[in-house]
Write a structure and sequence with these properties.
- There is one protein chain.
- This protein is α+β, with helices and mostly antiparallel strands and 133 residues long.
- The protein has a 3-stranded antiparallel β-sheet with strand order 1-2-3, with no helix packed on it.
- Strand 1 and strand 2 form a beta hairpin.
- The two termini are 44 Å apart.
């Protein structure tokens, strides 16, 4: 029985490190239940992933995009920026005035002394430790 080697896949994915990343990602997908595109032949998931790449049953570009998407925690969506309201500050009464399209709305932020802040921090209770981490 012929074994898949890196040389069989290197002409499809030129960078060996990238090949390992793609094959590892595909092997994890197979472990999670993704359908395979080649016969298993009693091979383990990493070997099946390499055989799929070598036989070009999966596009390396699509596999790379899927890997990148799986690693992203926050996908940024391009949205048009709205006109921001004009912001002015009045230092005499420690209030912030926001003028938006002819309406005036006063927002006052509470001021806290350094001693009050330190007393509040000292009163915080640390979170309980769990066995999950």
């Amino acid at each position: 029985m012929a074994r898949v080697t890196v040389e069989d896949c290197i002409d499809k994915v030129e960078n060996r490190f990238e090949l390992v990343l793609l094959a590892g990602h595909r092997a994890r997908l197979i472990s999670q239940g993704a359908p395979i595109t080649v016969d298993r032949d009693n091979d383990k998931n990493p070997v099946v992933a390499l055989r799929e790449i070598a036989d070009e049953t999966l596009s390396p570009g699509d596999l790379k995009e899927d890997l990148i998407h799986s690693l992203q925690k926050h996908v940024e969506v391009d949205e048009p920026e709205a006109d921001l309201p004009e912001v002015t500050a009045d230092a005499s009464d420690a209030a912030t005035t926001i003028e938006a399209e002819g309406e005036e709305e006063n927002i006052t932020f509470d001021r806290m002394s350094e001693e009050d802040l330190l007393a509040g921090i000292e009163g915080l209770v640390p979170p309980e430790k769990s066995d999950d981490f």
